[in-house]
Design a protein that fits this description.
- The complex is a heterodimer.
- Chain A is mainly beta.
- Chain A is built from no helices and 11 strands.
- In chain A, a hairpin with a 2-residue loop joins strand 7 and strand 8.
- Chain A is globular and about 40 Å long.
- Helix content of chain B is about 0%, strand content about 50%.
- Classes of the chains: A mainly beta, B mainly beta.
- Chains A and B meet through strand 4, strand 9 and strand 10 of A and strand 5 of B.
Chain lengths: ~120, ~110
């Protein structure tokens, strides 16, 4: 299957700082990537859709000014959690489709954020 | 609003038995369905996809789809302890891949040795 790589896998930061998570498609180009968040014992919740060369679209209830998404190339999307607080501690996972607009999503390894 | 319903479990199955996981969905326009497996602390990985009514078999896994009943299931034969994980069901959005997948809460499966 297609490979999506995410970095860092774990990050611990102090409250009030910003954290950047990178998501790369290694063997395909992705005009669209999807960012999910998963709290303990909860399902994956779609946060936003990252679009190459244009603004991201955010799901209802997700603050676009807090979760900054940049999709500057066909293989890289970044999620920046700005002014992180303990309630932002979660498992953030990016994903993309290798076949364009249909088919399954391939997921990155995920990034576990802990905000102290 | 798109909804995907799964029994969260835990579903406990003896090793070697058949595990049956069920999922219902609300959007009648969904045509394709995906089953993902997620181990604790890891990201999801695709197990099966199914597009047509009926059964689709892949090794020990069989996906079953009934679009009229808006129901999709996953059977795991000869269950192994390594099958212990959370299984997530996701229908593909009717509009295609411009939208992300909506996942159910997942069923936590425990295979007892």
């Amino acid at each position: 299957g297609a490979v999506v790589s995410q970095h860092p896998s774990r990050v611990i930061c102090k409250s009030g700082t910003s954290v950047k998570i990178e998501c790369r498609s290694l063997d395909f180009q992705a005009t669209t990537m999807f960012w999910y968040r998963q709290f303990p014992k909860q399902s994956l919740m779609l946060m936003a859709t990252s679009n190459e060369g244009s603004k991201a679209t955010y799901e209802q209830g997700v603050e676009k000014d807090k979760f900054l998404i940049n999709h500057a190339s066909l293989t890289l999307s970044t999620l920046t959690v700005t002014s992180a607080h303990p309630e932002d501690s979660s498992f953030y996972i990016c994903s993309a489709r290798a076949g364009g607009y249909t088919g399954e999503l391939f997921f990155g390894e995920g990034s576990r954020l802990t905000v102290l | 609003q798109k909804e995907v319903e799964q029994n969260s479990g835990p579903l406990s199955v003896p090793e070697g038995a058949i595990a049956s996981l069920n999922c219902t969905y609300s959007d009648r326009g969904s045509q394709s369905f995906f089953w993902y497996r997620q181990y604790s602390g890891k990201s999801p990985e695709l197990i099966m996809s199914i597009y047509s009514n009926g059964d689709k078999e892949d090794g020990r896994f069989t996906a079953q789809l009934n679009k009229a009943s808006q129901y999709v299931s996953l059977l795991i034969r000869d269950s192994q302890p390594s099958d212990s994980a959370t299984y997530l069901c996701a229908p593909e959005p009717p509009g295609g891949g411009a939208d992300g997948l909506t996942f159910g809460k997942g069923t936590h499966l425990i295979i007892q040795p």
